[in-house]
Write a structure and sequence with these properties.
The complex is a heterodimer of chains A (530) and B (428). With 530 residues, chain A is mainly α. Chain A folds into 3 domains: 117 residues, no CATH class; 88 residues, no CATH class; 270 residues, ABC transporter involved in vitamin B12 uptake, BtuC (Orthogonal Bundle). Chain A has 21 helices and 7 strands. Chain A has a 5-stranded antiparallel beta sheet with strand order 4-3-2-1-5. A two-stranded antiparallel sheet of chain A has the order 6-7. Chain A is globular. Chain B folds into 2 domains: 216 residues, Response regulator (Rossmann fold, 3-Layer(aba) Sandwich), CATH 3.40.50.2300; 162 residues, 3-Layer(aba) Sandwich (Rossmann fold). In chain B, 37% of the residues lie in helices and 19% in strands. Chain B has 12 helices and 19 strands. The chains are: A mainly alpha (530), B alpha/beta (428). At the A-B interface, helix 5, helix 10, helix 11, helix 15 and helix 20 of A face helix 2, strand 7, helix 7 and helix 8 of B.
Chain lengths: 530, 428
């Protein structure tokens, strides 16, 4: 409130009738200006200072600024929907008669967006929300000058929020470190900057440490502070890489789950596994088409649907093809490969060969900014958690349910299990269905990360086999460990060798490893082994 | 018996046989279409097949060529590079087509090239590519690097003040050659080696997190940074999505792409892409009568108002029109006569100005740079003043700067060395 009053007084003091009309006049020019002229016009507008600048710049920055075709009145579209209701920039009121047919968009380009981003930071320094104030101060770090510093000084005196205070101190210290004429003050300011993780601070210190004209004390202090900042950046860099590795591991895990059941437990070399992933991804697409207004919730429908769709296709394949090929691995391989081609062509015929668009729900977009040096993207984070949940469920099914018990019995000794009264045919079908269904669920997750097209399955089939073989056939924990270790190894190699070579190296490593231990990381022991 | 001598004789005999045929006027002129209709490239190439079919239909409605109807022969090389050569041979030897429109990736074109040269076929290649090639039997209607990559870099350097460069591409011949040219060009313009980062990824790459994080780190050094992307095909979608997720805004680190057009954008959520750039010779959003007509015809042909048009479609359109004009001028579909008549042909660009076929078998075309909008279209932010002549051999690579291609007398050579004044025989 206090801030608002301050604004109002300032506004009253500076605005004369003349200035107000000048603002409005300039505003009128905005609709006719070419992109090249717009920036100087916006600068002139900013120089006028007006409370209506914030909604104006905000709308322009986000591409929500329109003008009425009839009289060129500037209006802002609703930021959530991007169209009606439109709010007049000058009046601040909703203009009900407008819709997308009688308004025209005011164009922006990247240069204007960059200018607007900085200008918005200047305007938002006095925003009521402390988080916005803090972000605004941090945004200003790259463009400090005597004017902004004077403004920040005034703001610092009134600031109550500790985080904003800290951000303001960083800005003031950064300015002192670069521009003060007292060496002592500069060295002290540089010392205090050593705890900051702001990129602008890091760059400024790097420049100072190299600056031949700066006093030696300043250079040394800058090098020292920079060193401690770099250490933190290196540490967070490793955390980042570890997360990337785990995330890649979780993708491999989701892709390999189904195969860990169909190949790992049942011993079927299932070349159509990739297509089960694809079916899951396409199910996500179809579900989104069916509920276009509830994209955020669609994923919760898509997961069980994908399980059912891929699962029933799996049961069908088992009943119609695989059960006739027991104990004939080569024929199974060829038959399932044929099935995979049929499924791909089926999808091509139904959905066209083009990739389908799966929209990412809002809560899966963006990233979790832990500090300026470390942020984790939400989609990867949730998929990592999701993979672990699916894994837990799968272990639960295999270890704690009657089905799991029967599956293990059949896979260990078919004849004996049959003698004990287990319907092996039925168990086979259900197991294959379970493996395919889980693959379908993996496909839902993959649809958020990669393209949903007929070739989706093929790009994961090799990886899936790699993970299952490396982990040890028939061992779910082995699959888990294998997926994460391959993911992490890949991501730590990538910066050194490049993507293509990293994948190759991992493959070579696995080949060598399998030479040494043909049964993978966690071989099955005892009677179950054969 | 040498096949090289046999074949022209055979062709002569055939054309004589056709000439002597009483039904000559009814005999259709065969147009081969060599675009993948399945596999990874189907996403882009199937559109071009439809474009050729539309052009054939239009031409037939207008009375055909030389009073003869056109007949399209469509084959599917299935994104399988060696298969392109086999299918080209099938088109030329069995179907005896008079012209081929086809190929998208450079590797498929390089696989077809020896076949069309051996059988003296005629081919139109409609996609932007890395240059360093000029065959007597191929007309290149897409952009050479100096018609796309170089102007885009100029725009970033002069208009946006970019000082640090990420050259990211898919790992095959087009991105590698283009990046080699760009690297040489940037270094010529005083960019230091540590300000250039080069990165290659496989086809259909989907795990972009560490690369995007590297780009972010590279761009945080306080100098304006841009990404020049030769990433091809569907790998672009997860790439842009990751950029959005890691909060890299287009005004902080703009990405200018050479392989992302309207067609590629039509299947994806464009939210995270708004403000990023692409350089082409054509955008659907360009307002001109010829373009409006072309788009309307395309919508009518496909029966779908939401189908977009793109740059390789315009290149196909121009190539097709030029071929028709050249055949009319030559009065025959004989390959050598049409080849000679092709040079100097003019067809209006859909975006304004006149496309001219130069003696090096490349076109003169305007260059446009557009920003991606949230409706999947481009807003033109910059364009060249006039048309730019396609340069077959880059002036910025030490091995090729003295080479020119000129298929008119007296040079008549695709790789003429201006220093030694000989046809260098350099491999295509």
């Amino acid at each position: 409130m206090k801030r608002l009053c301050l604004w109002a007084t300032l506004w009253l003091l500076t605005s004369t009738a003349l200035a107000e009309s000048l603002f409005e006049q300039r505003l009128g020019e905005l609709t006719e200006a070419s992109l090249a002229e717009t920036q100087s016009l916006l600068e002139a507008l900013e120089a006028e200072g007006d409370p209506r600048l914030l909604p104006l710049f905000d709308a322009l920055f986000n591409g929500n600024l329109y003008y009425r075709d009839a009289d060129q009145t500037l209006v802002a579209a609703d930021p959530n929907t991007g169209d009606a209701p439109y709010i007049g920039i000058l009046s601040g009121e909703v203009i009900a008669s407008l819709n997308e047919d009688n308004v025209t968009k005011v164009r922006v380009n990247n240069r204007l967006r960059r200018y607007l981003n900085d200008a918005l930071a200047r305007l938002k320094l006095t925003a009521p929300d402390p988080a916005i104030r803090e972000a605004a101060v941090n945004e200003l770090l790259t463009q400090l000058n005597a004017d902004t510093i004077a403004q920040l000084d005034v703001l610092r005196a009134d600031e109550q929020n500790a985080k904003v205070q800290q951000a303001l101190d960083t800005a003031l210290n950064l300015y002192t470190a670069q521009s003060s004429d007292q060496v002592g003050a500069r060295v002290q300011a540089i010392g205090e900057l050593s705890s900051s993780l702001q990129n602008a601070v890091r760059n400024a210190l790097a420049r100072l440490a190299e600056d031949e004209d700066a006093p030696e004390a300043v250079q040394n202090a800058a090098a020292e502070s920079l060193n401690s900042i770099e250490q933190k950046f290196t540490f967070y860099g490793y955390v980042d890489q570890l997360f990337f590795g785990l995330s890649l591991g979780s993708v491999l895990l989701l892709a390999a789950f189904g195969l860990a059941i169909t190949f790992g437990v049942m011993g079927v070399i299932n070349m159509a596994h990739g297509e089960m992933l694809m079916l899951g991804a396409y199910t996500t697409f179809v579900v989104q088409q069916l509920m276009p207004n509830a994209i955020n919730q669609s994923i919760w429908v898509a997961i069980p649907m994908a399980f059912l769709v891929a699962g029933s296709v799996g049961v069908l394949i088992e009943r119609c093809v695989i059960r006739f090929l027991h104990g004939r691995p080569l024929e199974t391989l060829l038959a399932t490969f044929g099935i995979s081609l049929i499924l791909q062509q089926l999808v091509r015929t139904i959905f066209s060969p083009l990739n389908r668009r799966v929209v990412a729900p809002d809560w899966l977009s963006g990233s979790w900014q832990i500090n300026p040096a470390l942020s984790l993207t939400f989609n990867r984070l949730y998929i990592l958690i999701f993979a672990l949940i699916v894994f837990a469920l799968l272990v639960l099914i295999m270890k704690k349910t009657a089905l799991g018990l029967q599956v293990r019995a059949v896979s260990q000794n078919r004849a004996m299990a049959k003698a004990m009264g287990i319907k092996t045919d039925w168990v086979d079908a259900l197991t294959f269905g379970l493996g395919s269904g889980i693959a379908g669920v993996g496909g839902v997750a993959l649809s958020q990360l990669t393209n949903v097209g007929p070739n989706l399955g093929q790009s994961y089939i090799i990886d899936s086999f790699m993970v299952v073989v490396f982990g040890g056939v028939g061992n779910l924990y082995g699959t888990l460990v294998a997926a994460f270790s391959l993911g992490v190894a890949n991501k730590f190699l990538e910066p050194i060798t490049g993507t293509v070579l990293a994948t190759t190296l991992v493959l070579v490593f696995i080949i060598l490893f399998i030479q040494k231990r043909p049964k993978g990381l966690f071989p099955q022991r005892g009677r179950a082994a054969e | 018996m040498n096949t090289k001598h046999l074949l022209p004789g055979l062709a002569l005999g055939l054309s004589a046989a056709i000439g002597g045929n009483a039904l000559a006027e009814e005999d259709p002129i065969k147009v081969g279409v060599l675009h993948s209709l399945s596999g990874t490239m189907a996403i882009s190439e199937s559109t071009l097949k439809d474009t050729v079919l539309m052009m054939v239909e239009q031409q037939n409605e207008a009375g055909g060529v030389l009073g003869r109807p056109l007949e399209a022969v469509v084959v599917d090389p299935a994104s399988d590079w060696p298969l392109f050569a086999e299918k080209a041979r099938e088109l030329l030897e069995e179907e005896e087509v008079d012209v081929i429109f086809g190929s998208w990736t450079s590797v498929s074109r390089k696989s077809v090239l020896p076949v069309v040269e051996e059988l003296n076929g005629l081919m139109f290649y409609p996609v932007q590519y890395e240059g360093e090639e000029s065959s007597e039997n191929i007309f290149y209607t897409g952009a050479a690097p100096n018609q796309q990559a170089i102007p885009a870099v100029d725009y970033l350097m002069n208009d946006l003040g970019i000082e640090r460069w990420v050259l990211a591409g898919t790992d095959y011949v087009y991105p590698r050659t283009t990046n080699k040219i760009l690297e040489a060009y940037l270094m010529d313009h005083g960019v230091a080696e540590e300000d250039i980062m080069i990165n290659y990824t496989p086809f259909s790459h989907s795990d972009w997190q560490s690369i995007v994080s590297d780009i972010k780190e590279f761009g945080s050094a306080g100098k304006p940074t841009a990404v020049v992307s030769t990433i091809n095909g569907d790998a672009n979608v997860p790439f842009y999505r990751e950029l959005g997720n890691q909060n890299i805004d287009s005004f902080e680190i703009p990405v200018v792409a050479f392989s992302v057009g309207e067609e590629e954008l039509s299947g994806i959520d464009t939210g995270p892409l708004v403000g990023h750039l692409a350089a082409w010779n054509y955008f659907q959003s360009v307002d001109s009568d010829a373009n409006d007509e072309f788009i309307a015809a395309w919508h009518e042909f496909t029966g779908d108002d939401s189908r977009v048009t793109n740059d390789p479609m315009e290149a196909t359109y121009i190539g097709f029109k030029m071929w028709v004009q050249a055949v009319e001028d030559a009065g025959t579909t004989d390959v050598d006569a049409v080849e000679a008549a092709m040079i100097g042909q003019e067809v209006p660009n859909l975006t304004g100005g006149m496309a001219v076929m130069n003696a090096n078998h490349h076109l003169s075309k305007p260059v446009l740079i557009g920003e991606i909008q949230d409706d999947g279209q481009f807003e033109v932010v910059w364009s060249t003043d006039g048309v730019v002549a396609g340069d077959a051999w880059s002036d910025f690579l030490p091995d090729s700067k003295m080479l020119i291609a000129d298929w008119t007398d007296p040079i008549n050579c695709g790789n003429y060395n201006t220093e030694t004044e000989t046809c260098s025989g350099q491999n295509y």
